[in-house]
Recover the amino acids of this structure.
């Protein structure tokens, strides 16, 4: 990128005054997108404590709208922890404490007035293990939608969600039968359908394909490509090829010398995989680590 | 003292291993015998009750008024109705109390409150039921006289800890990832509990309730001071004493007339069959429906 193309800072991002005497994290390559790309999540110096234990430190990145952003890194590096911070799923863990600044469209996600039910209504999540409710396929999708007041044309809503999740043709004749009768890959797509049926703004995926076979994985990846046109996708994966295939931007997390998870590098996916700036990233993606 | 065996020696028992094997076998035999004895007691008991009770059984036995003091004529109809009615009253009180207690324990209680409340429930379950009867008698019957309501209340005290503990177990078997799924859909906590946790745990809760009802239906002591002095004929008004099968067995047997005693066996047979059937049925049903839910 030449200097003349130097982009403007995104709107809604307020400058943050550093109150610590730590040196700025030079490892993080800041690449602001042109203003047309809206920043959804704006993280600066985010840290996570579980009780006295520091689990994640100094995460600063921007996640852009309608992008698929991947978090990669070795086990225990905090990538899932950070993902779960984005819709406040960690709140129920005893001793969880978030430090730093984490904004969602310029709103402080951890402000005392923020209602986490509202947060999660806008920022949906799909989990590592498929977790359909022990209800019918139809009810799995209709339940939350109905409770959120989306009662009109519920049948169409269910059908649309199932079509978007590329599951409709496989289940249209047995919508009333139990979701637990589906295969693992189908269950995971049902969970994606369930998440998008309530029209969230962001979909977080926490290693959504790790429990699936290669064919089911491929169909989930195709799905992510289609979904990012309408949603902002953030995906945690331990599979680097998967990140390379689906993500526009990739963040590499790892452990620092004190065994604390941290963000090492964040860049456009092709750039991160072809010419990483940090040695640790290079070691990891060339298989010399973890 | 060389404990290292000669590797060339045949691999048969030698030295003190033979003695150790004998001790081991004797111990194993003792456990088998004890287990066989426990099962045998149940089987002999069932055989005895069936042998003495089955001859008293007829359709009119279940539909007639209670017999007169000498045990001639009549049946256990009002006692069956009373037992069902008081078990119903007890369950109406105990089911919501027990399930809400289990929900509090599983969803909201801190570790301290959790431990204390669990201990209390265990103590409550182990409470001699005669004390429950005395307690309710002192609290209610002494002021308002014996009634089906007082009897039902006493039985509910027997049921609450049973329902709470078993519901707690059913609720804690609901996978946490289902609760997370509900949270991640922007559902409030109570919505997830009503819409996901309780339906998933429902078969366990229903089973717990059936077992608690079976247990309460067989209780005598809680009714001794709370719903005694009932008449011979059918009565469904819970403001007055209601007859009950266990108490009727007690009174028939105590009167000592041969006709009464044979009716007592018949009533015991009826009670036993219903309770065993409820127990077995509830367990089978639980296993099947939990398998269907993937628990």
């Amino acid at each position: 990128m030449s200097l003349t193309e130097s982009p403007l800072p995104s709107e809604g991002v307020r400058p943050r005054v550093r109150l610590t005497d730590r040196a700025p994290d030079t490892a993080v390559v800041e690449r602001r997108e042109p203003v047309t790309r809206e920043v959804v999540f704006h993280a600066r110096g985010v840290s996570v404590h579980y009780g006295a234990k520091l689990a994640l430190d100094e995460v600063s990145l921007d996640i852009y709208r309608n992008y698929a952003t991947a978090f990669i890194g070795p086990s225990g590096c905090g990538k899932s922890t950070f993902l779960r911070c984005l819709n406040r799923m960690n709140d129920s863990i005893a001793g969880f404490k978030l430090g730093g600044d984490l904004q969602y469209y310029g709103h402080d996600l951890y402000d005392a007035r923020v209602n986490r039910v509202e947060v999660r209504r806008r920022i949906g999540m799909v989990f590592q293990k498929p977790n359909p409710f022990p209800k019918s396929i139809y009810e799995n999708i209709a339940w939350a939608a109905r409770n959120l007041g989306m009662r009109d044309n519920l049948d169409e809503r269910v059908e649309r969600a199932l079509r978007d999740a590329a599951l409709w043709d496989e289940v249209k004749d047995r919508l009333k039968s139990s979701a637990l009768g589906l295969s693992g890959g189908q269950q995971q797509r049902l969970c994606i359908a369930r998440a998008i049926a309530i029209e969230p703004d962001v979909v977080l995926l926490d290693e959504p394909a790790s429990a699936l076979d290669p064919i089911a994985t491929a169909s989930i990846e195709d799905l992510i490509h289609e979904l990012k046109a309408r949603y902002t996708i953030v995906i945690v994966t331990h599979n680097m090829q998967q990140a390379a295939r689906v993500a526009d931007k990739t963040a590499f997390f790892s452990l620092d010398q004190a065994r604390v998870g941290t963000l090492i590098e964040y860049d456009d996916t092709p750039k991160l995989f072809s010419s990483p700036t940090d040695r640790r990233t290079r070691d990891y993606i060339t298989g010399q680590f973890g | 003292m060389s404990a290292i065996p000669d590797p060339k020696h045949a691999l048969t028992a030698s030295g003190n291993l033979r003695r150790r094997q004998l001790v081991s076998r004797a111990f194993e035999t003792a456990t088998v015998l004890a287990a066989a004895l426990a099962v045998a007691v149940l089987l002999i008991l069932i055989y005895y009750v069936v042998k003495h009770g089955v001859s008293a059984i007829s359709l009119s036995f279940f539909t007639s008024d209670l017999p007169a003091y000498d045990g001639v004529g009549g049946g256990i109809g009002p006692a069956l109705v009373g037992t069902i009615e008081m078990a119903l009253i007890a369950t109406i009180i105990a089911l919501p109390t027990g399930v809400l207690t289990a929900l509090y324990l599983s969803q909201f209680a801190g570790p301290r409150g959790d431990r204390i409340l669990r201990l209390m429930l265990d103590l409550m379950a182990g409470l001699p039921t005669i004390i429950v009867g005395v307690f309710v008698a002192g609290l209610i019957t002494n002021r308002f006289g014996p009634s089906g309501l007082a009897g039902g209340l006493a039985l509910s005290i027997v049921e609450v800890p049973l329902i709470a503990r078993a519901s707690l177990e059913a609720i804690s078997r609901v996978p946490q990832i289902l609760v997370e799924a509900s949270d991640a859909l922007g559902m409030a906590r109570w919505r997830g509990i009503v819409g996901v946790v309780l339906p998933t745990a429902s078969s366990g809760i229903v089973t717990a309730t059936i077992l608690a009802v079976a247990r309460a239906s067989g209780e005598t002591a809680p009714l001794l001071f709370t719903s005694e002095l009932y008449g011979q004929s059918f009565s469904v008004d819970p403001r007055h004493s209601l007859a009950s099968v266990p108490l009727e067995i007690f009174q028939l047997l105590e009167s000592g007339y041969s006709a009464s005693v044979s009716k007592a066996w018949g009533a015991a047979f009826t009670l036993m069959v219903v309770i065993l059937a409820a127990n077995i049925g509830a367990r089978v049903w639980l296993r099947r429906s939990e398998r269907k839910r993937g628990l």
In short: The domain at 78-292 of chain B is CATH 1.10.3720.10 (MetI-like fold).
